[in-house]
Design brief:
single chain; alpha+beta; 7-stranded mixed β-sheet; 5 helices; 39% helix
């Protein structure tokens, strides 16, 4: 009988240990998932930049320290994705409505996008924030800057390509770090899309699309960074 009791006790321990291991694993997975949902990935330090805004004022990355801000490349006469991006930025501007939030819109057509032209563009789209800077400068410098951001801008030497650009947006924190969230596979997305989509998942871009999932993600993540 004593042997049977010892045997029963041992078998109970064998059953209990795997259950404990499974519970610990599930807790670990839960904590890990929560980490990816609540934390933002640091992509890299924002590249140094110095350009002229719509008020003929020099703006640098150092001027933006202490603010959470977005960076896009665009041009004011763009007939396709730029108006969509600007509209989505305007929604973000209204939603955030904070003196600690800003937007940097860098023109890839500085020949036409003079400070005065950019000032008229800002007025036309209804910009309210003093921290939304439309920047212009030397095109070669701007092309190299886009490369440093890893945001696509067409080669200025190629006439048919020079005004092509990506619809991606960089999110920068108060310390000057480019940040992003993790996707469903817990991989950093790196940049956010400023485009509209035909589907809620953001798989089919469409200028007149009614969905803009990354806009909502940006608003959520900007608020996270503003609290820090």
């Amino acid at each position: 009988m004593p042997k049977n009791k010892m045997s029963n006790k041992g078998s109970k321990n064998i059953v209990v240990i795997p259950i404990v291991v499974i519970i610990v694993l599930f807790l670990g997975i839960g904590i890990g998932m929560n980490y990816f949902k609540s934390n933002l990935y640091t992509v890299m330090k924002v590249p140094d930049f110095e350009l002229t805004d719509q008020n003929n004022k020099k703006i640098t990355n150092k001027d933006m320290l202490g603010k959470v801000y977005l960076v896009e490349f665009f041009f004011s006469s763009c007939p396709t994705i730029c108006p969509v991006m600007n509209t989505n930025m305007r929604v973000v501007e209204d939603e955030i409505n904070s003196p600690d939030f800003g937007i940097i819109s860098i023109s890839i057509d500085p020949t036409n996008d003079t400070p005065e032209a950019l000032k008229q563009h800002a007025k036309r789209i209804g910009v309210k924030s003093l921290n939304w800077h439309f920047l212009t400068g030397d095109r070669t410098y701007i092309g190299k800057l886009a490369d440093q951001f890893n945001i696509y801008v067409g080669d200025q030497e190629d006439e048919g390509e020079s005004l092509n650009h990506s619809g991606m947006i960089a999110l920068v924190d108060k310390e000057g770090n480019i940040r992003c969230r993790y996707n469903k596979d817990n991989m950093p997305i790196l940049y956010y899309s400023g485009l509209n989509y035909e589907d809620p998942e953001g798989r089919i871009p469409k200028l007149s699309g009614q969905y803009h999932p990354d806009r909502e993600l940006l608003i959520e993540d900007i608020r996270k960074l503003l609290k820090k």
